[in-house]
């Protein structure tokens, strides 16, 4: 028998989208698409109007992340998962070390393990709900981990592995669900890459990378020099970070991009900067996350999945439910009432809710979400 619960309109969120990616797109971003319908959509990405759009994104991100001297913004097609392959092809010289503590941090490590021209990576792993950073390892030239593990709601600290920079190693950080939602000192990274379908409220299929001078130099060297057996490494143009940067400096992408995606991202970057930049965005996300964690700690049927408060994400919040309350049933009833995309990560397989609290999400809507969950559980 199917249970139906009608949530009172008075406690419903104004906007019921709480996805961990794709995330909520603001109405103003859709309006920007409409405004660009005849001047940008359906036009060449190598002509001035679209190039100005890309230039605005690059300049806006430069200001948003307060880039140190010499750091540059590159972008290209394929999303963050494509960037894992770019990093294997263009950044890792011989061997990388990885911190793996969830599905997405493990996938990058798997790419490096499968690359026939790289040595077996050093893996530093921990159980879901925790994190582990890579440690200084002889022969490693690239250290990699995720700022935020989207699958588990764990946020990891970002700082160079002690001794790694002196050894000439790069620090490469997956910022996909963290960028724009969690604090970051970019000087502690050489590559900070992400996709725009999280805090930047856009679509997937695009990657953006903040590159240090050392990373730029490394990519140029790897792509042009002999490697291991003396043969030049084959780097297809699509996986060439050097070619991506060359095109980005011209305010374009190597391949034809989704112009609609660029329009939405440019609008979001301007909105974030106009409101106070990274400090404003991270404060807003922290407030929303705190509302959820506090609610779960007070609840008699819910609790935060991540036990260490210092490791709890302020971008993606994971909440375990007591076994007597089935998450699938709660999620189905929420969806019937227009509240969507709060499901836990499927491969984690827990009785869990997962809530994206990116900057576009109103903290007041988070409060109402908790009221709606309580209402549904009470009326099951």
UniProtKB/TrEMBL annotation:
Its main location: cytoplasm. One of its GO terms (biological process) is L-serine biosynthetic process. It catalyses: 4-(phosphooxy)-L-threonine + 2-oxoglutarate = (R)-3-hydroxy-2-oxo-4-phosphooxybutanoate + L-glutamate; O-phospho-L-serine + 2-oxoglutarate = 3-phosphooxypyruvate + L-glutamate. Binds 1 pyridoxal phosphate per subunit. The keyword Secreted does not apply. Pathway: Amino-acid biosynthesis; L-serine biosynthesis; L-serine from 3-phospho-D-glycerate: step 2/3; Cofactor biosynthesis; pyridoxine 5'-phosphate biosynthesis; pyridoxine 5'-phosphate from D-erythrose 4-phosphate: step 3/5. It comes from the Bacteria. GO terms for cellular component: cytoplasm. InterPro entries: Aminotrans_V_dom, Pser_aminoTfrase, Pser_aminoTfrase_mycobac, PyrdxlP-dep_Trfase, PyrdxlP-dep_Trfase_major, PyrdxlP-dep_Trfase_small. L-glutamate binds at residue 46. Its cofactor is pyridoxal 5'-phosphate. One of its GO terms (molecular function) is alanine-glyoxylate transaminase activity. It is found in: Cytoplasm. Gene3D superfamilies: Aspartate Aminotransferase, domain 1 (3.90.1150.10), Type I PLP-dependent aspartate aminotransferase-like (Major domain) (3.40.640.10). Pfam families: Aminotran_5 (PF00266). Its EC number is 2.6.1.52. The modification N6-(pyridoxal phosphate)lysine is found at residue 198. NCBIfam families: serC_3 (TIGR01366). Catalyzes the reversible conversion of 3-phosphohydroxypyruvate to phosphoserine and of 3-hydroxy-2-oxo-4-phosphonooxybutanoate to phosphohydroxythreonine. Belongs to the class-V pyridoxal-phosphate-dependent aminotransferase family. SerC subfamily. PANTHER family: ALANINE--GLYOXYLATE AMINOTRANSFERASE, AMINOTRANSFERASE CLASS V. This is Phosphoserine aminotransferase. It comes from Bifidobacterium felsineum.
């Amino acid at each position: 028998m199917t249970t139906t619960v009608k949530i009172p309109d008075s406690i419903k969120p104004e906007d019921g989208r709480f996805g961990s990616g794709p995330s909520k797109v603001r109405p103003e971003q859709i309006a920007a698409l409409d405004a660009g319908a005849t001047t940008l959509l359906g036009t060449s990405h190598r002509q001035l109007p679209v190039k100005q759009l890309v230039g605005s994104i690059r300049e806006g991100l430069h200001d948003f992340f307060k880039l140190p001297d010499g750091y540059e913004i590159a972008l290209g097609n394929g999303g963050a998962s494509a960037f894992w392959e770019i990093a294997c092809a263009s950044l890792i010289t011989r061997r990388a070390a990885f911190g793996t503590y969830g599905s997405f941090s493990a996938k990058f490590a798997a790419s490096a393990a499968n690359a026939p021209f790289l040595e077996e990576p050093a893996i530093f792993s921990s159980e879901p709900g925790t994190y582990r950073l890579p440690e200084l390892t002889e022969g490693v030239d690239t250290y990699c981990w995720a700022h935020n593990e989207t699958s588990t709601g764990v946020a990891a600290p970002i700082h160079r592995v002690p001794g790694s920079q002196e050894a000439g190693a790069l620090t490469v950080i997956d910022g996909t669900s963290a960028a724009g939602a969690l604090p970051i000192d970019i000087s502690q990274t050489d590559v900070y890459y992400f996709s725009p379908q999280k805090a930047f409220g856009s679509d997937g299929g695009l990657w953006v990378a903040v590159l240090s001078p050392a990373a730029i130099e490394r990519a140029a060297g790897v792509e042009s020099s002999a490697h291991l057996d003396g043969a030049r490494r084959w780097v297809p143009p699509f996986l060439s970070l050097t070619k991506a940067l060359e095109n980005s400096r011209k305010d374009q992408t190597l391949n034809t991009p989704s112009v609609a995606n660029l329009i939405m991202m440019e609008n979001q970057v301007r909105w974030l900067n106009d409101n106070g930049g990274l400090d404003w965005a991270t404060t807003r996300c922290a407030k929303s996350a705190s509302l959820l964690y506090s609610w779960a700690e007070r609840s008699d049927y819910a609790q935060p999945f991540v036990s260490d408060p210092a490791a709890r994400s302020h971008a993606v919040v994971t909440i375990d439910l007591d076994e007597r309350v089935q998450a699938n049933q709660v999620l189905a009833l929420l969806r019937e009432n227009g509240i969507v995309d709060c499901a836990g990560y499927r491969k984690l397989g827990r009785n869990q809710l997962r809530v994206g609290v990116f900057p576009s999400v109103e903290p007041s809507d988070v409060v109402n979400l908790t009221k709606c969950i309580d209402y549904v559980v009470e009326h099951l």
